Amino acid sequence: MTRFHPHCGRCSQCLDRRFAVLAAGHANEDPEEAYKVDLFTGERPPGPDREMALSFVRSASRIKQMADVAFFAHYGESSRIVGCFDEPADRVAERILDLYRRHADHVCRVFDRAISAHASELRDGSLPSDCLLSLVIAQHDASSRDVARTSEPEQVAGDKAEIRIAVDEGGDRIVFDRWGEITGANARLLLILAASHREAVRNECTPENFPFVRPDSLCQQAECDGETLRKRVFRCRKRIARMASEAGDGHPAAEAIIENSQWHGYRLNPDRIRIVALSELSAERTGHASHANRSRFATGG
After folding, report:
1. How many CB atoms lie under 10 A from the CB of residue 49?
2. CB atoms closer than 10 angstroms to residue 133
3. What is residue 33's three-state secondary structure?
4. Which of 31, 57, 110, 114 is the most exposed place for a label (fewest CB within 10 A)?
5. CA dihedral angle for residue 96, residue 97, residue 103, residue 106, rounded to 10 degrees
6. N-to-C CA span, the chain
7. Are 276 and 164 in contact (CB under 8 A)?
8. H-type helices in the chain, by residue range?
9. C-beta of residue 146 within 8 angstroms of C-beta of residue 158
10. What 3-state class would DSSP assign to 29?
11. Got the DSSP string for 196-254?
């Protein structure tokens, strides 16, 4: 940080602060020049910081459209809060939902104003392709094309469809139904998370109570440091997204397979992932995917 740029503009605190200040109408108290990376037009190279910014806007957009039941089904951990208040559970739940919806509404209105303010630059393509405005709009365009390309809505990776995987510990690989297989360092990461996921299934945990694997434990098991771990998670998500896209299912959301919590660590998404025996996957699809991936690895793809 410098005196001219006291804020990085990339971390979660900067995102929270900037959206809150703009929503409150006090931009003059928090000038954009104080941030090394502008919230909407600053370049955001691939990595965890970009994913965090995209997730911030994506979550707000999703919550704004959610029905009451869908919200509590998706954010089951909110049930832990209800018992901490003297008010009736229904009333506390209403207050939680209202809080989330107000926050989502503020974020969406701030983002919509930014789109209007930069409409000409968006039209003529003069904004950086990796700024938040360009990334979010390009993401929606890609999602629309993916939905239009498939005739089976349940196979679109962006919806709530179940994602089936098989764990092949002997072969050090993870096989995705329809998509193909993951090997190497990415597979080792998924194998560690799969072990925790399987234990939660055996213990009959509800999705919100599936444990996260703490970063320090994950680093120890994966034999890497924290920075390497974050890069590995990013590369693994990117690899899976490419496999899904090549299979015609579009790009899954960043946390469709690997979820992460800043305070708890990482886990396989309990709402989306179903671990099954390798024999339970379609033999034709699995064989084809494995052959395609072996060919790609052999050619360095």
Report:
1. 19
2. 22
3. helix
4. 31
5. -150
6. 39
7. yes
8. 12-23, 48-65, 68-74, 79-82, 89-117, 119-124, 132-149, 184-202, 215-222, 226-246, 283-298
9. yes
10. helix
11. HHHHHHHTT--GGGPPPBPHHHHHHHHT--HHHHHHHHHHHHHHHHHHHHHTTS-PPPT
Angle at 251 between CA 250 and CA 253, to 5 degrees: 135
| pLDDT per residue of the chain (301 residues) written in tens, 0 to 9 | 667 778 999 999 999 999 999 999 999 888 888 898 999 999 998 888 899 999 999 999 999 888 888 888 888 888 788 888 888 888 998 999 999 999 999 999 999 999 999 999 988 888 888 999 999 988 755 444 443 343 333 334 444 688 999 998 787 899 999 899 999 999 999 999 999 999 999 999 988 889 999 989 999 999 999 888 888 998 898 899 889 888 888 777 777 899 887 668 899 999 899 999 988 886 544 544 444 444 443 334 4
CA distance 111 to 35: 17
CB atoms within 10 A of CB 206: 11
| DSSP letter assigned to residue 28 | G
Contact 175, 274 (CB under 8 A): no
> What are the residues facing 273 on neighbouring strands?
163
Beta bridge partner(s), residue 268: 258
How does strand 273-276 pair with strand 163-168? parallel
Beta bridge partner(s), residue 163: 273
AA identity, residue 62: R
In the block, tokens 């600053």 appear at 42
Nearest to 22 by CA among 5, 36, 40, 4: 40
